[in-house]
Design a protein that fits this description.
27 strands; alpha+beta; 3 domains; 653 residues; 9-stranded mixed β-sheet; 5-stranded antiparallel β-sheet; Jelly Rolls
Length: 653
């Protein structure tokens, strides 16, 4: 059955603009037992049945491959006439890391007991929303996307089919959208617990406005902010959110970022508000107001991806259990439509981050649909140069080349943990093409050079000499050069591709020959006999734990040399350390050399890094060891890539 056979893509107007909101409603006769809604939109939707919120959250997708949801709305329907209302927010801009712009549109059908009861068409009643202030295109961060501004004074009962005459509905415009339609692969997000804010007063908690109020949710949480308050003024209230109070208040503006939205209240009555479009990740919420607010309540209704926790290893110590639990909770905070690097600042899907998250998730939840959906979305990226984009879905012409190689790794690990041969066969052409983009760049030296251009960031990790000098990249083009990190990651990815081919019964001879020749070239070019280590670049005297660990994992360094390097990785303080995100490769290299010998070191190292985070009162693990102070005061205190101890506790305990 094609649920959209009679449905049309619609919008209130033909010429939608960026940051525009549309509202639709349909009167549906219902005398059956079951009602199913099929729906897709660009960019995000909420659904109300007889005034009650029934569904929310368009899956992040590409305009050429749209995801639709099948939603059981039976419990919201009553016998007789029902009003099914839709509100859609069209982002329409290509400057974010979480959205690929398409045409504004909504498509739906309602099936009642197997019979089509309603479809989107020109007859659907629609209007541009009077309550949301449109076209401001005010960003929160470059990665996260747009904020919003809401005017409660213009609200009416449109969700019940009773619109104010000042804001009339009319017929819809059919929109010409051509795309593949596919069902959501993973489950839909749902509501979790509500975190009620406790107002903070006292020394150090200083609001940024005369009548400002600061609220502590008690822990990091991700979801929709809920407001309740009264005021005798119509002065706008700015709502700021954040993960810390390092300055005594919520740090609304960090660099060019603005962690806030604006609410215009109705005076003389209790204002209630929750926006089911924009998820916020935070612990603290500050109301910034120039006028008094009374009867104030602030909370956050968490939005979660439904998973069941698996048991942790029984032999964990008390502090290890605390670290494990914090990592699991962090992982949950960073999984919604797909894995997210962090809920506060970005909510973006990266291959490197998601590799760590998937590996931890296999042990934390044993869930298989979610990582599959991630890989499926990544595989639909369509950069013409063969690399993968920096995030998914995204249209920005910007890439981290090394992250394309992590895609091969996470695909091989997915196959290993799920035995889902059919899915990997389906996306195999994308995996192979991505790897071949690098193999085809191997030149006469036997090595591959880094990528050049303003749209390339040769990043490996957040350590000097390996971070790709991000801020320099934004000012000038990155240059081609031979570096150890890219070449060892390529060799490592070829190993993973060999494993995939062996599993699928495909030829491996060519890949093995390529890897052998590459490893020989890597050793000849980057090995420094006088240091008994591999240097990051020729004659650089830059020796890093990450790159030398990769030499072990890629098989460039083997035998006694691997043993010697492993010892240096744990004892030589002169080596450039591996940052939090990349310690997985360090630990893997040590396990590769001698699991028994280095297990205690790995477990102790995890405790050394993670215990201080939890002593600060956080229930999540950080992006880096510096916490909020890193990245010019924009460090994340809830970062999915740091949940990797889940994997090592299960492996080593």
């Amino acid at each position: 059955m094609n649920a959209f056979e009679k449905s049309k893509w619609i919008w209130p107007v033909a010429d939608a603009k960026a940051d525009e909101y549309a509202e639709f409603y349909e009167v549906v006769d219902f005398y059956g037992r079951e009602a199913e809604l099929y729906i897709s939109s660009d960019s995000n939707y909420t659904v109300y049945v007889n005034g009650s919120l029934a569904a929310f959250g368009q899956y992040a997708d590409f305009p050429y491959s749209k995801v639709y949801d099948k939603i059981d709305i039976s419990r919201y329907m009553r016998q007789g006439k029902n009003v099914v209302a839709f509100r859609v927010w069209y982002y329409g801009i290509d400057t974010t890391s979480t959205y690929y712009p398409g045409k504004a549109g909504l498509i739906y059908s309602i099936i009642s007991d197997g019979v089509t009861a309603a479809v989107s068409s020109a007859k659907t009643m629609s209007r541009l929303s009077p309550t949301f202030v449109p076209y401001k295109c005010k960003g929160i961060t470059m990665q996260l996307g747009l904020s919003f501004e809401y005017d409660s004074k213009r609200a009416d009962a449109w969700m019940l089919g009773e619109a104010d005459d000042r804001y009339p509905f009319g017929s819809s415009t059919e929109i010409d959208i051509s795309c593949v339609m596919r069902p959501r692969t993973c489950l839909r997000t749902e509501f979790g617990e509500t975190h009620k804010g406790r107002e903070i007063t006292g020394k150090g908690n200083t609001p940024t406005s005369p009548h400002g109020r600061i609220f502590d949710l008690g822990c990091e949480a991700v979801g929709f902010i809920c407001l309740r308050f009264a005021t005798e003024s119509e002065a706008p209230v700015t709502v700021a959110f954040g993960e810390h109070l390092a300055d005594g208040h919520v740090r609304q503006k960090v660099g060019g970022r603005d962690f806030s939205f604006v609410y215009h209240p109705t005076r003389g009555e209790i204002n209630y508000y929750m926006n089911a479009f924009r998820r916020f990740g935070c612990r603290y919420i500050e109301l910034i107001s120039d006028e008094p607010l009374t009867d104030v309540e602030v909370s956050l209704r968490s939005v979660v991806y439904p998973v069941t926790d698996l048991d942790s290893p029984e032999s964990l110590t008390a502090i290890e259990q605390k670290i494990y639990d914090a990592c699991v909770y962090t992982l949950k905070c960073c999984m919604h439509e797909h894995y997210e690097d962090c809920p506060w600042r970005e909510q973006a899907l990266y291959t490197m981050d998601s590799r760590n998250q998937m590996l931890a998730g296999y042990y934390a939840f044993g869930e298989r649909l979610f990582p599959k959906a991630n890989l499926e979305l990544i595989a639909e990226d369509n950069r013409p140069d063969g690399l993968l984009s920096i995030c998914y879905p995204i249209k920005r012409d910007f890439a981290i080349p090394s992250f394309s190689l992590h895609f091969v790794t996470e695909c091989e690990e997915y196959l290993r943990y799920t035995a889902d041969d059919g899915f990997i066969r389906r996306i195999y052409p994308k995996i192979a093409a991505t790897l071949n983009t690098f193999i085809d760049r191997i030149d006469g030296s036997g090595l591959v050079k880094t990528f050049s251009g303003r749209d390339m960031w040769n990043f490996y990790e957040w350590e000097d000499g390996l971070d790709g000098s991000l801020y320099g990249v934004l000012k000038e083009e990155s240059k081609e050069d031979y570096d150890l990190a890219l070449n060892t990651l390529l060799s490592y990815a070829i190993s993973r591709m060999i494993s995939i081919n062996e599993r699928l019964g495909l030829d491996t001879d060519s890949l093995k020959a390529t890897k052998s020749a590459l490893n020989t070239a890597i050793h000849g070019y980057f090995y420094r006999p006088d240091a008994a280590l591999y240097e990051t670049r020729k004659d650089s005297a830059h020796f890093a734990k990450l790159t030398n660990a990769l030499c072990i994992l890629a098989g460039v360094a083997d035998g006694n040399l691997a043993v010697q390097i492993a010892d240096r990785l744990t004892t030589d303080e002169a080596l450039i350390d591996a940052s939090l995100s990349m310690r997985a490769f360090l630990y893997d290299a040590l396990i590769e050399v001698d699991r028994v010998k280095y297990s205690a070191y790995i477990l102790s190292d995890i405790e050394r890094i993670y215990a201080p985070m939890l002593k600060t009162g956080n229930n999540t693990v950080w992006e880096t060891e510096l916490g909020e102070a890193d990245f010019d005061s924009a460090g994340s205190l809830c970062h999915g890539w740091s949940s990797i101890p889940i994997y090592y506790y299960n492996l080593l305990k």
